[in-house]
Amino acid sequence: MLSFATALDAVGSAETEHDLPDGSTVADLVERLTAAYPGLEALWPRLAVAVDGEVAGDRTAPLHDGAEVALLPPVSGGSCGAGARRLRDGAVDADTVSSVRARVEDAGKGAVVVFVGNVRNSFGGRPVERITYSAYPAMAETRLERIVRELEAAEPGTRVEIVHGLGTLEVGDASVVIATASAHRRQAYETNRLALERLKAEVPIWKREHYADGKSAWREEEPLD
Asked: For 139-154, how does the pLDDT look when each residue is reduced to its tens digit (9 = 90+)?
């Protein structure tokens, strides 16, 4: 089993193994985990459970031998490993921004919009020194691909590319770049906005903010569906 963000804090380990009887369901696993890790009890209303990279529709979903189960807190929004096409280790550098732009533009696209998200130095009035981004790689890559393809299909001729950084990023570092290109500026702007909103809502990426007072906290928003 894989645990992320606040679920990781409750379990105490990123990877654990659990043996259940044949015919067990997600609900049976939840019961077993609650007994083993009491800190999960308060989190269950906010946690999604993924089985083999797909969120289980309900807790009656069956589990098979060797299933990869992941506990997914609400995503924090701005996507793990080296070599992934839309995810990279470390900050998004200037060369990456340029290459992402180059992948969407051509002579038939009159408008190119590039959004770069940076780590800011405060949140809610608290000074922030750095942010650590983590992700569930298998699902994050799949969902980024789906976002890109669905946005392109919705507006034929529009191109979309996204790259997100992982690991510890300092204030001022770029964490994400989204480039969109279309024949007209309105569509390029709107598609870029939709790409960012969907990334924040759908992609299993979490961020832990580290504050100037030495404390840190996970930032979580809406539950992952």
From this structure: 999 999 999 999 999 9
Distance CA 56, CA 24 (A): 14
pTM beyond 0.85 = no
pLDDT computed for residue 80 by the predictor: 35
Q: How many C-beta atoms lie closer than 10 Å to residue 60's C-beta?
A: 10
Q: Which of helix, strand or coil describes residue 82?
A: coil
Nearest by Cα to 223 from 58, 61, 47: 47
Per-residue pLDDT at 162 exceeds 50: yes
- Which of 218, 214, 87 has the alpha carbon at shortest distance from 162? 87
| Residues whose CB falls within 8 Å of the CB of residue 64, separated by 6 or more in sequence, listed in order | none
Classify 57 in phi/psi space as left (phi over 0), alpha (psi -120 to 50) or beta.
Answer: alpha
Q: From its phi and psi, is residue 176 left (phi > 0), alpha (psi between -120 and 50) or beta? A: beta
Distance separating alpha carbons of residues 21 and 61, to the nearest angstrom: 14
Tokens representing 65 are 């031998």
Per-residue pLDDT at 76: 57
Give the SS3 label for residue 179.
strand
pLDDT tens for 70-94 read 999 987 544 333 334 689 999 999 9
The label of the residue with tokens 């702007």 reads 189
Q: What radius of gyration do the chain's Cα atoms show?
A: 19
Alpha-carbon gap, residue 86 to 176, rounded angstroms? 10
